[in-house]
């Protein structure tokens, strides 16, 4: 029975960590929405048969960055060709965070309902401890 309890506790912790990752991603895009700068990029690869995907590249401070279009991007795969110029919105303090969509739209699409990391750890830990206590004090079914 102890193995099932550990499995459940591990599941709770994994789910909490996943939510924390979503929250951190949203906070990066919030920063992008606050301080983005537009930079010219270029479409370098098309995969229109896979949900209309295409890849773009841009250079920031001499370093090449690549990205994939998202559903909110202003240009669809059918509207671009390899070499088409696109506007990339870049966070100058963290150029690994960038988007083709308007930064505020990109942030809103990622924002949703996110719980802060500290709350996930505290609540998840409390649930795991409560479950362990319940397992210990409940009468055996044998």
Q: How many domain regions?
A: 1
Mean pLDDT, rounded to whole units? Answer: 81
Which regions have little confidence, pLDDT < 50, spanning 5+ residues? none
Major pleated sheet? 5 strands, antiparallel
The share of residues in helices is 40-55%
Order of helices and strands: HEEEEEHH
Detail the topology: elements first, then pairings.
Layout lengths: L1 H34 L1 E11 L5 E8 L2 E6 L16 E6 L7 E2 L3 H9 L5 H21 L5
Helix pairs in contact: 1-2, 1-3
Structure description:
With 142 residues, the protein is of the alpha+beta class. Helix content is 45%, strand content 23%. It has 3 helices and 5 strands. The protein has a 5-stranded antiparallel beta sheet. A hairpin with a 2-residue loop joins strand 2 and strand 3 (63-68). Helix 1 runs antiparallel to helix 2. It starts with a helix and ends in a 5-residue tail after the last helix. The model has no long low-confidence stretch (mean pLDDT 81).
